[in-house]
Amino acid sequence: xxFLLISCAVPANATTLHFGAAEKQLSSATxxxxxxYYSTTTLHAVDPDLAAxxxxxxTTIFGVGGTAAIAVGDAALTDVLSGKTFxxxxxxxxxxxxxxxxxxxxxxxxxxxxxxxxxxxAVDPDLAPAHIxxxxxxxxxxxxxxxxxxxxxYGLPKTGNQPGFPVGAPTYAGDDxxxxxxxxxxxxxxxxxxxxxxxxxxxxxxNGDNTLTDNAxxxxxxxxxxxxxxxxxxxxxTYTWANxxxxxxxxxxxxxxxxxxxxxxxxxxxxxxxxxxxxxxRYNLAINPIFVNTSTNYWSSTTVANTVANxxxxxxxxxxxxxxxxxxxxxxxxxxxxxxxxVIMTPTLTTIAVTNITSMTASSGGNISxxxxxxxxxxxxxxxxxxxxxxxxxxxTDGTGTGIFTSSIEGLTAGTIYYVRxxxxxxAGTTYGDxxxxxxxxxxxxxxxxxxxxxxxxGTGLHGLVAAPSDQSTxxxxxxxxxxxxxxxxxxxxxxxSNTTAxxxxxxxxxxxxxxCDNLVLNGYDxxxxxxxxxxxxxxxxxxxxxLGGFNGTDYMSSSEDGSDYVWTQYFPNGIPYExxxxxxxxxxxxxxx
Length: 594
Description:
Layout: E1 17-18, E2 21-24, E3 37-38, H1 43-46, E4 60-61, E5 64-65, E6 85-88, E7 91-95, E8 100-101, E9 114-115, H2 120-123, E10 137-138, E11 141-142, E12 151-152, E13 172-173, E14 178-179, E15 193-196, E16 199-202, E17 204-206, E18 211-214, E19 220-222, H3 241-252, H4 271-275, E20 297-303, E21 310-315, E22 323-326, E23 336-337, E24 342-343, E25 348-355, E26 362-370, E27 378-384, E28 394-395, E29 403-409, E30 417-426, E31 429-432, E32 436-439, E33 448-449, E34 452-457, E35 464-467, E36 473-477, H5 496-507, H6 513-518, H7 533-542, E37 555-562, E38 566-571, E39 576-581, E40 585-588, E41 591-593
Parallel strand pairs: 2-3, 8-9
Antiparallel strand pairs: 1-2, 4-5, 6-7, 10-11, 12-24, 13-14, 15-16, 17-18, 18-19, 19-23, 20-21, 21-22, 25-26, 26-29, 27-28, 27-30, 30-31, 30-32, 33-34, 34-35, 35-41, 36-40, 37-38, 38-39
């Protein structure tokens, strides 16, 4: 037995042999581990992507704990703000499409969606204290607006103040009043003095500024100046009931800049106020003579309940009451202030929808359901192109009073959107109805528009039909050489196009009326068609009768057939439609819609 020991060198570039097999290598391209010998290494060294940032949080792979957040969820593109990217279960790098919504000062609608940070005042600068009623809080803005005359002491039929008596004082019923006692009732209340223990005051005090104070009621009365002296206090001045408010009282409250005698809360007395200064112990005149320059009949602010066109007045001639007159009649007026506060509101009204729209005019109006407690002295509609129109914009003036009124809107620009509100004014101010909008018609009958001459405009004022400016033929047949039913049976407005299409589809190529119109390219438009029976009739009524369109006094064919042999034709000298044979050659005028 012997042993042979062989030693050999392995070149540096040769594969290391291990028991006759080559050394194996792991690959980052697969997770397969084949049989064989592997040198010492780490899986991370083989595949560097085996890292914490690439493994879901909460998962450990070969000892490496994951930290990556994995996208989950079911959001749609419309759920994510436009321009923002996101990922969800099974999808990555998506871009949202949800639009950013904006509020509009034109209405109070808040649509669903995402809104950028802002303030409501930035959207509508009118959300400001100066535009909100005093002490009212709207979205955190407390109002300071107090319309001149919105809280004033005139206009409503309220009972006037009556004299008060000390607690426990005896009272006795007289002919015309209550008074303290027979012994101290001079000549008859309300004339003379009221006298009881602790109370000894003259009934009226002359304030030296052309006013009197009634110490029994607390009311302050206007004194009249001599007739013919001129000015608001002239004893000869007479007013209709409405003018007693908007001329006389309004004038007193602005007199001298601060109002008559330094007060701007003068009002027209109600019926009981006036009756409180009647002196039924006198006649001709039945009033204390301290009221100088007094005449007979004076308006009260009180409307007659069952005849609203009339108002109560008081006659100081013989003290006879009650009396009423039509409000348009002119009699005298005396002002008073003090007493129970009466709230006069601006009128309540709605805006009537806009109708009869043309390219330059439209109709609207309003409905005033309440005058607010004082006569409506002006009313109408106002409009602009920006929204929330006021009387500083374009407006109409449509009379006075409550109820429904109509307004004519003029001076419009074709195709422009306008905003309209009804308005009404009384002594408390001006108020507006709801806002409505409309678009002025793009054209009106007879206008040259959209390649032709307008002969029909629909109810919106934005769409209609035009006729070609001249005839397309002075003699062409309706049929294409043979009598067939084409299905072009429509006769009404709006069926000319479908008729033309049906005729061409059935009759095909050739030289005939519908094909001529269908092929027409004129004034930049290629959608001309042969008019239906009623459309042709409107060409006659709205153009030919008015000398427009250059129509000849002859027969014009429509696209409306009647069976296989006949077509509706119109005789333009008198506008009478009739059925004519399809093989006859007649005039043709194309139309198109806009």
